[in-house]
Amino acid sequence: MDRVKSTKRGSEPTPEPILEEELSAFVESDQSDPTSTETDAPIVPILEFDQVSKSFPGGYSAIDTVNLTILPGEFVTLVGASGAGKSTLLKLVYAEEVPTSGVVRFNGRDLTEIKRKHLPYYRRNIGTVFQDFKLLPQKTAFENIAYALEVYGKPTEDILAEVPQILELVDLDGKADNRPKQLSGGEQQRVAIARALILQPKIIIADEPTGNLDPVSAEGIIKLLLEINQLGTTVILATHNQGIVDNIGRRVVLLDHGHIVSDEMVGRYVTSERKPRPIV
Amino acid sequence: MKTIKLWRTFKEGVDNYRRNGWLTFATVSVLTLSLFIIGLTALIGFAGSLAVRNLEEKISISATFKPDVSESRILTIRDELSKYKEISSITYVSKEEALKQFLSDGNQVNADAVTAIGENPLLSSLIIRAVNPADYDLIATKLQSSSYQNEIDTVNYARNKKKIEGLNDYASRARAIGLTLGIAFTLIAILITFNTIRLTIYSHRQEFEVMRLVGASNLYIRMPLFFEGVFYGLTAAVSAVVFLTAVAFAFSRNSGPILTEILGGTTFFQVYLSFLWIFAPLTIIVGILLGVVSSHIAIRRYLKI
Ligand SMILES: Nc1ncnc2c1ncn2[C@@H]1O[C@H](COP(=O)(O)OP(=O)(O)OP(=O)(O)O)[C@@H](O)[C@H]1O
Ligand SMILES: [Mg+2]
Hints:
heterodimer, A: alpha/beta, Rossmann fold, 6-stranded mixed sheet, 4-stranded antiparallel sheet, 10 strands, globular, B: alpha+beta, about 5% strand, elongated, binds adenosine-5'-triphosphate
């Protein structure tokens, strides 16, 4: 924490310091946490929403005074009706949107303090997965994943070593040279997850990752996300799919009109109209 | 930016250029056409001004002096005239020289006529050339109202007047048209190129979002487009130069000797070659600049965050 504060303060007077190093230093300091946190220091939430509201021009309030704390290693499922504000809440995390009021903290750090031009470096701490995969259409599966490393300035030999490993992890070793058009929806989504994983992010954000997939592929994707979570990465999943939520058996946060209306540590799919069903 | 990233963005630029297929073709075609038209306008202007300069050199006023004016007197007048800054050169032609020139035509009738007269019927004269053809009028008036006007037999300005006026007219009109066309086409070229490149970038707008999400910095997203712009400009410039060369060559071959004479003894293609010297590097610079600036402006709106 101290180290975070001091690097932050150091960046205030001079507008130039490269946050790439700053942020990676900041992330590394956190990596040594698991041992130290359990013994002496309190656990630093990986993500913290503190009285966060977001309204869009026209006054529509998509997120309304949300308080939410997510600890490292959690698997959180966000549910709620269409328009409840799930995507907006996630956008606040990867800084695609800025809160109208309140503070979003990543690893204890206020996101509004990150300068615009340094956002790309911050985003490398967060892997994103979307319903529409968001792959680069002219690149192969391999190239799409490699891109996330190239952008980072990773040496080529490291890229050539790491990408095949991650492709194997998502079970796509045979499809490295296929373009997105030559892959099924489930395969495309696994490429997207592999790309999100390759930088070893602190958090994976998955906004309806199964929205375009058949039930079998969807199940595979959720299994993959759970595996990734098992390896220590925090996962935040937004979904509509009741069956999926009920099977995960992890924390479920229900949003309704921008409010958190329920937050169960072992949750099931709920809607704002119905109280959670008792687990039989 | 690290060298490795620079190299990667360069490769991305090459890949985009190759993969974009018809869009690359369209962009390069438009840019080529624009540069070609600009080049053609400039070439016509260049050849035109060469022709004008050449014709201007052939125009002069000659003042013939009465037979009783002595050579030394004419030379005094010459020295006096050469003080005017409007006059670029004055040549004294004695009546003997005038006769020699007259006979050197090889025209037997002329020779016979001179023999019949038995003496030199020609007069000494001063051939005056102006710096600017527009000043011939002024010079002629000056001569006719000078202190030595009585010593002058004739000022053959009137005979040249039509020719001079026509040339003046042509030269200034050609310059005006050339300049207007040049500017108009340059503006059109910039607009069309800009729009084509904007279209190219528009078709990739979703990819910029993806790149940003994956953690690419704006510079990293921009650089491939910068290189793409360079390639567009370079390809288009080279194509434009090739096309213009072909057109100049064909035109030169099919044009008669009159054109060569108007151009002062050089063929149109030779004129083109001396023009190419400046034109080729300039086109390449303009082409690259057009490609780069267009893509630079067009991408801005997609990199808000
Ligand atoms: N850029 C924007 N400008 C204006 N309103 C917006 C914007 N983005 C989202 N909204 C509004 O905010 C509300 C929440 O949107 P959001 O996308 O977060 O919902 P969601 O819970 O993800 O819905 P879905 O399940 O359909 O994806 C919606 O009413 C939406 O219209
Ligand atoms: Mg949504």
